[in-house]
Amino acid sequence: MGVASRCAEIDWSKEHVFLDQELRAVVQDAELGTRFVDRLVRVSVLDGGESWIYIHIEVQGTRQAEFAKRMFVYNYRLFDRYDRPVASLAVLADAHKRWKPDSYGFSVLGCRHTLEFPVAKLTDYEEKMDELLASDNVFGLITVAHILTQQTRKKHQERYIAKQRLVRLLYERKWDKQRVIVLFRVVDWLMQLPDWLNSQVWQELETIEENKKVQYITSVERIGIAKGMATGMAKGVEKGRVEGQSRLLRRQLERRFGVLPSWARELAMQALYQLDVQGPDLLGRLVQFFTENAPDDSVRKLAADWTKGTWENLSLCDELITASTMKWKLSRLSSVDKSIMRLSVYQLKFCPEVPPKVVINEAIELAKKFSTDRS
Questions:
Q1: How crowded is residue 322: how many other Cβ atoms within 10 Å of its Cβ?
Q2: For helices 297-312 and 314-324, what crossing angle results, to 10°?
Q3: Is residue 148 within 8 Å of residue 186, measured between CB atoms?
Q4: Which ranges of 103-137 would DSSP assign to H, the alpha helix?
Q5: Residue 259: its pLDDT value, please?
Q6: Burial, 117: exposed, middle or buried (Cβ in 10 Å; 0-12, 13-18, 19+)?
């Protein structure tokens, strides 16, 4: 039986007490060295008894050879100290699906001493994520956030979409303000994104809170995180000037891939978004952005060329956009939508080798991926 089924044996209607002082006393035992226990709690069980429950939570992505032994040591140390039955429970958050240590012991001269403990393996819930998200269990949402974080490693776009989904879900639940804030911080900490995508997450938050007429994530928190993002953007930045050779690069890429790579267009749109948000001073710092995010040197140069061309013709692009939009001022468009439209107008006007149909289709796909339902 797993951790969930064992927890069902606890009478949650009665008071449970976390024993932090007693826990520290056990941890300070010299023979335990630097080992630690996360939580020790006294609870009542449904059969009317009482039990000390020791919960050790491992949140790590690698296997530990000594894990089962550590569970064994903690269990007998706690029993020795309190002379009460101890239940040791474990949560494994690593990515190795077959690694499920659930016992440790030894046998010598006819004497046996063994501990068998229930294990919750988070990878076992990969096929149940929709079920977890449909429930009101906060641990279900955190479990899904952890699994998606593992699945989207080095996949910024997929992680952004997954994170956006979880953030929206926080506001759909009838949870109080404090719970929403705490869960958002957990999700934000787990599902880290590049600065420009984090900006879009915050934009999505503002839209949600505006529509629901709430302000759970305070202005102070927004400002603090924005400053942190700006600081991160400034670190390790290179000075450089992007020199585009667009026509040659396009011919090379078309021969290699058959069609213009969509990721070059995505990178250009992302760069234009950052320029719109942070201003032209960012131009000399985009080299680092393209270096870190482009999968190919040719793609990197093509994206840089499109970005430079659009920015140098920004006034004309905005003029054409304004002339084509009815009863909708350019200032009312989000930075994401403006960036997509500016890039598309530039390509339609100055890149005759790019088929208009391709430009329009790619713009629609970019809007689906990065914009909101209100666009």
A1: 12
A2: 70
A3: no
A4: 129-134
A5: 42
A6: buried
**Kind and range of the H or E run holding 18:** strand 17-18
Select the highest-mean-pLDDT range: 10-19, 58-67, 125-134, 293-302: 125-134
What whole-number distance in Å separates Cα of residue 62 and Cα of residue 70?
A: 16
Which of 277, 184, 271, 169 is closest to 226 using CA atoms?
Answer: 277
Angle between helix 20-27 and helix 67-82 axes, rounded to 10 deg: 120
**Beta strands 103-108 and 86-92: pairing type?**
unpaired
Burial of 45: CB neighbours in 10 Å, binned 0-12, 13-18, 19+:
middle
Q: Is it the case that residue 253 has pLDDT exceeding 50?
A: no
The candidate with the shortest Cα–Cα distance to 303, out of 349, 257, 264, 254, is 264
Of 286, 258, 262, residue with least CA distance to 366? 262
Cβ-contact 188, 152 below 8 angstroms:
no
Do the Cβ atoms of 141 and 183 come closer than 8 Å?
yes
What are the tokens at 223?
A: 């400002």
Please state, in angstroms and rounded to a whole number, the distance separating the CA atoms of residues 298 and 314. Answer: 24
Amino acid at 198: N
CA distances (Å), origin 298, targets 85, 275, 326, 343: 65, 22, 38, 19
Residue closest to 76 by CA, chosen among 47, 106, 50, 101: 106
Question: CB 76: neighbour CB atoms within 10 A?
Answer: 13
- The structure tokens listed for 217 are 């994530």
Q: What is the pLDDT of residue 292?
A: 75
Structure tokens at 70: 């550590």
**In the chain, which residue ranges form alpha helices assigned H by DSSP?**
3-7, 20-27, 67-82, 129-134, 138-151, 156-172, 177-190, 195-212, 219-234, 246-257, 262-278, 286-293, 297-312, 314-324, 335-350, 356-370
Give pLDDT, residue 274.
84
CA-nearest of 150, 131, 102 to 2 is: 102
